[in-house]
Amino acid sequence: MDQGKINSILNSFRDGFNSEESGVPYDPNLTKSLQSDHELLSASLKDIEKAIESLNFQKIEYVIKNQFKPVLVKHLITESVKLYTYLSLHIKPSSEEYPYITKVRKKMYDIGHLTFRFTTRFSDSKLIEQEWDEFLKQFEEVSSILSIRIDEEEHTLYSLYEKYKN
């Protein structure tokens, strides 16, 4: 994926979509699908951890490029288009929940940007090996942030989506 596409995706997280024109309907399977993505992302992170333990740089590269990044991209796009747009349509700006949606959308933009930089930078086994300490530091940061975010989404954000179903 080229940097232009990535920037376009990330800008959609930050700016949102025109909810009035998008007409995004409620999807009864959305939160289950997003939770399934979380399971795949968590499994990918565990696969990377195992590869780290065995210093298998090629396996780390493979998991980042072929498992983690594709699921992450799909998840972020789906969440932005279906979840945030839907909630923006159904939560009134005067509602006390509206600032929360704005905050978590912005936070997701930041997390998306961080993880895209990580997956783009460390998508080559030779670079991972050359910059091992930096890779480990950034991997720990990405893992920690995603773990916290997944918990928040599954316990707060998704229940808000369910609350506003038609």
Description:
The protein is mainly α and 166 residues long. 83% of the residues lie in helices and 0% in strands. It is built from 7 helices and no strands. Helix 3 runs antiparallel to helix 7 and helix 5 packs antiparallel against helix 7. It is elongated. The N and C termini lie far apart (36 Å). About 5% of the residues have low confidence.
Task: Please sum up the structure shown.
By secondary structure, the protein is mainly α.
Q: Flag low-confidence runs.
A: 13-21
Number of helices: 7
Q: Rg to the nearest angstrom? A: 17 Å
Q: β content, as a range?
A: under 5%
Largest sheet: none
In N-to-C order, the SSE pattern is HHHHHHH
Keywords:
166 residues, mainly alpha, 7 helices, 83% helix, elongated
